[in-house]
Amino acid sequence: MGDVGALLAGFETALQPQYLLFAVIGVLLGTAVGVLPGIGPAMTLALLLPLTYSLDPTAAFIMFAGIYYGGMYGGSTTSILLNTPGESASIITALEGNKMAKAGRGAAALATAALGSFVAGTIATVALSLVAPTVAKLAVQLGPPDYVALAVLAFLTVAAMLGSSPARGISSLALGLFISVIGTDSLTGQQRFTLGLPTLGDGIDIVIVAVGFFAVGEALHVASRLRRGPIPLVPITGKWFTKQDFRRSWKPWLRGTVIGFPIGTIPAGGAELGTFLSYATERKLSQHKEQFGHGAIEGVAGPEAANNASAAGVLVPLLTLGLPTGATAAIMLAAFQSYGIQPGPTLFTEQSDLVWALIASLYIGNVLLLVLNLPLVGVWVKVLRLPRPYLYAGILTFAALGVYAVGASVEDLVLLFILGGIGWAMRSFGFPVAPAIVGLILGPIAEEQLRRTLAISQGDPTALVTSPFAAVVYCLVVVAFVGSQWLKRRQARLDAAVFAVAQASTTPGGPTAPVDDSRLASTARASSKEDGQ
Amino acid sequence: MSTIDTSGPATERAARSRGPIPKSELAVAAVLGGLGVFALVDAHTIAVPASASAVGPRAFPYAVGALLVLSAVGLVIALLRGDRGEVEGGEDVDTDGGADWAAVLKLTGSFAALCVLVEPLGWLIAASVMFTGAAWTLGARPWWRALLVALVLNTVVQILFTQLLGVYLPAGPLEGVPGLG
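Output (structure tokens, whole complex):
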């Protein structure tokens, strides 16, 4: 039961007033940036990473925990209140929430999302505290070939799961690997792909690539195709949370947690899959099937819980194996590396204080989110009303600031903008950005382990597959590939159904058409009747 | 390796079309393939010290170059089979219609101004020029209101970073002004 003691010690650290303050700042900043449209959790982390550079590691990671959970949560407010279709990842969560808001039940949608995030986040963090040390103890026995196998597993699943087709995912991954090779080889000190430019001699800082791909790329993308006209915000109306809402929400919360946590721990492309499976489950089990597609509270409660549970699940492979399973985790890994800390099985023994303080601040961050977010919802609505020209000019400013603050180098700024241009091109041509980020960060680790394996075996490549663990992982690669294609087919079917519903209710003259409103009004009447019972 | 096989259900979410392949999409595949060829050729010039073990500094770059070439080929096959790149959606993105190149050029100009001005004129002034340019490009009117927002924002940034976080930002001609330098 040494882990409980370590966790309590972590709480002792994280509850010190100055660290608590960092947790509050992290949650507030994370939520505020996460609420901004077009900014996902990965971009939130990349943009705020430079802010933590001047802090000591413990303070930085406590703030990071807050930013991580805050950024995850912030997105749900956006999808519920902003009446424009977002990216496909948030559509599942957004669909019912946005319909509820339009039907006059926005408050209940926000409440079930916040409470569901809290319940799922807390249960999943408990699971993380229990599972991670055990996994770390087992992982100590892994050798270099086993890490090569894990990296291959992560590469292929991330490339196959994210994006519209494997060809595009692998292309993005290859680009990330290419960028990771640029610089000086860490083992022999040789220059690689530097074109003789001194700027590239030390390689390209991960922060520059992440901020360039996510922030500058997104700003250019939006600038080139800005949606003009007023911001279609749905006002928050209705009762916050009734007994009826609770009765319909608590089971989806728990089911979402059970679905989301394990999905987060496997390299399946992050939270998107968990939210989709939870939505499908709730639709199947609901007694109000007819409300799905028109604002069913189960369709918000389940996916929101799954989303937050998988956010905690993602930390299991990250902390115990140093294996990022998505873009957000990859940027977390980069943050660890910037402090000279390499996540992996030894992290729990060598940096025990830091890890447990981080886990403790996840619990604290969850409570803070619940306490702060519903009262502050008025502030988040104001954030959503930010005029778009100022918003994207501000994103560009902070992207440049973050990169310039690290090294005060104009060359870095130029590099940032070039990478932003690549990020824009990827968005315009339908290439997912996340595999590139995972390739960039996991590439050097994979290369080092590969060379170590072959150095030990004196060049015999069979050493890569003769380790039993590695062999099992390669079998899993095959299973995961088949499985991911099956899941994608199911997701495609659900997407099609969801889009059909969305189309049916929005096509006649746009989202605010009278037809749509009257139909929603009748749904609203139906649900308010239920509330009264 | 079946990872570039796009006949599977994975492409159901991608846009399918039987029309001609847009030249721009082929150009993307060409750029990717070109990058791969460059990687393969340039990897050959990486010096291998005598001390290097079985796998030296060249092996991984070769593998990356090969992967780039293979993915370019895979992309062309996918395009031939009807896979089309879909513009990524977003809350503020209008996916109908083409890209507004003029806006992107103006934005590039604003960012270039920051790069040129940040050392001689300092962060506050250079970043305010960029912010104003970017906001104006995206439709902020009148321009002086954008400038006002930019000056307030960047003054706060300059004070916060140099005074509170201890991060260096050049002050330019404002060097010596309390709180900014």
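DSSP finds four helices and two strands in chain B.
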